[in-house]
Amino acid sequence: MMEFVAELSLWEIYAIVCGLLGSLGLLFGFIAGKKFSIALRVLPLMGIAITTPATERIVIPYLTERYPVIFANKDLPRKIDQKTTLTKIDLTDHIYSYFYDLDDDDDDFDPPLVKSAQLTDLCDFLLPKFSSGEASLANYIYQLKGRDYSFSVDSTDCS
């Protein structure tokens, strides 16, 4: 069920949280309203008012941690630079795969050269994932003019 929620757009997630908190406020307002007449008017508004902080501090971090790939793909495709577009991120069996499209007229794309040029930044990003066991390998797949070029990074590359 929570995966379904993670796949929703952010405004839909906010709307669900608002509806739930407003409904809880209404329910508690009915219960408390028997002794405190103002409760029926105030508690639903309080539930709605705490929607943003509850969503930003609890719901979104929980969903992001539990479903990182779904949240990573929400903003894709994303232009990385003038020639590179990140199109998809996948996680299968502790292997991250990052898919890129290259808009380049040059046919001399050299994956080992790209890997060596970016290894420090890649390791800074990947080492926490390797250390925690979240990932054991990261594949970088670039598509240029219908051909795939790739390289992989694992924990031994970052030693």
Features:
alpha+beta
Please describe the topology of this protein:
Blueprint: H1 2-7, H2 10-33, H3 39-49, H4 51-66, H5 68-73, E1 78-79, E2 84-92, E3 95-102, H6 111-132, E4 137-144, E5 147-154
What does this structure look like?
With 159 residues, the chain is of the alpha+beta class. The protein contains six helices and five strands, in the order H-H-H-H-H-E-E-E-H-E-E. The longest helix has 24 residues, at 10-33. The model has no long low-confidence stretch (mean pLDDT 89).
What proportion of the residues is helical, as a percent range?
A: 40-55%
Taking all Cα atoms into account, the compactness measure Rg is: 23 Å
Helix-strand pattern: HHHHHEEEHEE
Strand content: 15-25%
Major sheet description = 5 strands, mixed
Quick structural gist:
With 159 residues, this protein is α+β, with helices and mostly antiparallel strands.
